[in-house]
């Protein structure tokens, strides 16, 4: 057995210091995550977690980051904001994570924000709500285009089609509430009047009553549903059952093949804004995002034998921005990582091209969205309207 007994104090201190540095260098970089693996938002959270696990495994196989492996510590909030808050507290206080990626939903993300802000832990949300990053919060960032951007993309298309009076059906979740607020805020900009407005709960199994009221509104020309998870599919089926012969729009909250599966033939002719990932192979060869989204699609499908969704893409973008920022910081110092995330410029991701700043903790513009229409169970690119 090796003994330190014969070493002089100064030499002993030097040896112990070197040993401590060696141990520290081998410690993993801890990334915490709170995602919705169960509950109404499960089909958003499932691909997010799978993406994080897949790419962290790849990064570790290639040597890790700064010579250290990444350890992912994740919890399922069950699509409930109060659980997201509790697990965030655990990540910060017990797991001692260096950074947090999570918040599948706007409600979950908003419940996490006070904790990360107080503790000073960098947080990258995968949810869409504007309130997550407006006003800008020191430790909070996001990678999903906002609900305001989604509303603007939809309204630009409506304007092009001569639609000026619509009905709005919004979910009572944080995502739906924020979406309804932003939809109302930008409607006049595009000459749109909301002549009927109804809500539904994320666990509701029928929206016939709400849609019947909207159908009867005077002069109505189209309907816009703002929600995520299973609710929008329920509304889509009810819409067709009521034989409402008007254009139906959804938000980016349904940009997943799962929405088409849940809705079935009722999804045909539905239009919505979505990231380039959904139509990777339809992008022109010179599109800056094409190499990124096609490579992600290939990698994800090879591993999981299932279709990609924009939500898994948000997991990819959040992780890559985090990893790039840790490399730039050269350490896991939280302030240095935070500053590096804020300085993200020209990062080409699955959601768009990110250019963040001190006042913009998302860094995407309206070009991040492509307008799609569903036909025969497939996504189709609609000519750009912005």
Description:
This protein is an alpha/beta fold and 386 residues long. It is 42% helix and 18% strand. The protein contains twelve helices and 14 strands. It has helices at residues 9-26, 42-61, 81-93, 106-119, 147-160, 174-187, 208-215, 231-241, 257-263, 290-304, 310-329, 334-342; strands at residues 29-35, 70-76, 99-102, 123-125, 140-142, 165-171, 193-200, 222-226, 248-250, 271-274, 345-348, 353-355, 370-375, 378-381. The chain has a five-stranded parallel β-sheet with strand order 2-1-3-4-5, sandwiched between helices. Strands 7-6-8-9 form a four-stranded parallel β-sheet, with helices on both faces. The protein has a three-stranded antiparallel β-sheet with strand order 10-13-14. Helix 3 runs parallel beside helix 4 (106-119). The chain starts with 8 loop residues before the first helix and ends in a 5-residue tail after the last strand. The model is unreliable at 1-7 and 12-24 (pLDDT under 50).
């Amino acid at each position: 057995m090796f003994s330190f007994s014969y070493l002089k104090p100064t030499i002993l201190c030097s040896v112990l210091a070197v040993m401590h540095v060696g141990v520290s260098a081998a410690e993993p970089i801890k990334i915490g995550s709170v995602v919705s693996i169960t509950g109404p938002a499960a089909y958003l959270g499932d691909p997010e977690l799978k993406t994080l696990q897949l790419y962290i495994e790849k990064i570790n196989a290639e040597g890790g980051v700064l010579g250290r492996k990444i350890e992912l510590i994740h919890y399922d909030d069950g699509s409930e904001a109060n659980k997201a808050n509790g697990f965030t507290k655990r990540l910060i206080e017990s797991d001692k994570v260096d950074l947090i990626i999570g918040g599948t939903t706007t409600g979950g993300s908003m419940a996490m924000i006070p904790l990360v802000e107080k503790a000073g832990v960098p947080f990258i949300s995968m949810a869409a709500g504007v309130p997550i990053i407006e006003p800008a919060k020191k430790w909070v960032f996001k990678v999903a285009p906002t609900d305001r951007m989604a509303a603007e993309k939809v309204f630009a298309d409506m304007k092009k089609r001569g639609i000026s009076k619509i009905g709005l059906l919004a979910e009572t979740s944080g995502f739906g509430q924020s979406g309804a607020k932003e939809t109302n805020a930008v409607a006049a900009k595009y000459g749109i009047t909301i002549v009927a407005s109804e809500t539904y709960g994320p666990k509701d199994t029928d929206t016939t009553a709400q849609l019947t009221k909207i159908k009867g509104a005077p002069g109505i020309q189209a309907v816009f549903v703002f929600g995520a998870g299973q609710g929008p599919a329920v509304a889509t089926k009810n819409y067709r059952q009521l034989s409402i012969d008007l254009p139906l729009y959804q938000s980016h909250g349904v940009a997943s093949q799962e929405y088409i599966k849940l809705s079935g033939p009722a999804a045909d002719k539905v239009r919505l804004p979505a990231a380039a990932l959904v139509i990777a192979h339809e992008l022109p060869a010179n599109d800056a995002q094409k190499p990124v989204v096609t490579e992600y699609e290939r990698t994800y499908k090879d591993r999981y034998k299932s279709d990609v969704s924009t939500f898994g893409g948000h997991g990819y973008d959040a992780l890559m921005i985090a990893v790039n920022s840790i490399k730039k910081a050269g350490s896991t110092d939280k302030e240095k990582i935070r500053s590096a995330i804020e300085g993200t410029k020209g990062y080409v991701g699955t959601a768009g091209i990110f250019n963040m700043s001190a006042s913009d903790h998302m860094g995407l513009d309206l070009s991040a969205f492509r307008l799609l229409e569903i036909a025969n169970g497939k996504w189709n690119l609609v000519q750009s309207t912005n």
